[in-house]
Amino acid sequence: MATLDKRPYVRRQYLIKRDLQTKYAFMFVLSIGVGLNLGVVLTLLAPMLKNASPVFPALYIILVISCVVLVAAISILFTHKIAGPIYKIEKTFRHIIDERDLSARIFLRTGDELQELADEINRLLDHFRNSLTVEHQKLEAILAKLDYLIQQAQAAGNIDDALIHQLQDVRMRLQDTGLNYKLQ
Q: Which of 12, 45, 103, 137 has the most beta carbons within 10 angstroms of its beta carbon?
């Protein structure tokens, strides 16, 4: 009997997907840099608001609003490359579960993140669909053999009706095994 390892999991490698992680780390650092520089610029402009003409407060407010809108827009654009694929994967899984449809596939836009994950999920679905197809073919062969045996037993006439009913019950139970997935 296998023993379970009770030691806590210790992460040894932090850069697993180097390209993905460095891209988003760079964007995070860039956002912080822009925010810090914006803070410095706004702090330097603040004294001008007290002593200056009414143009400076309006300019200050426009600058703040513009920066907030710009950072929000950039954040949405970059997070959409991850959030979009996650949404698409979740939607496809819901469809597969609700419709029992193993022919569904995940298709992501060019440039979206998680492309490798979508490809691996599609490979898994192909493997599962192929395995179920083989199992379905085996089940069909068993059902055909059972039909033949039931037909032979009924034709012989000297077989107990209880046995024929039991064979028909077994056939119904086999037919209702839950392998009713859309495979194509």
A: 45
Distance between CA 92 and CA 83 in Å, rounded? 14
CA 87 to chain centre: 7
Cβ distance 102 to 181 under 8 Å? yes
Q: What is the predicted pLDDT for the residue at 136?
A: 86
| Residues 41-66: tens digit of each pLDDT | 777 776 766 666 666 667 777 877 88
User: Is the separation of the CB atoms in 136 and 183 below 8 Å?
Assistant: yes
Distance CA 13, CA 30 (A): 24
Distances (CA, A) of 79 to 63, 72, 109: 24, 10, 14
Tell the burial category of 143 from Cβ atoms under 10 Å away from its Cβ (0-12, 13-18, 19+): middle
Rounded to 5°, the CA angle 85-87-93 comes to 100
Query: Which H/E stretch holds residue 160?
Result: none
* Domain range summary for the chain, segments of one domain joined by +: 17-99, 123-184
Q: Residues 63, 65, 71, CA angle at the centre, nearest 5°?
A: 100
Which of the 8 DSSP states describes residue 52? S
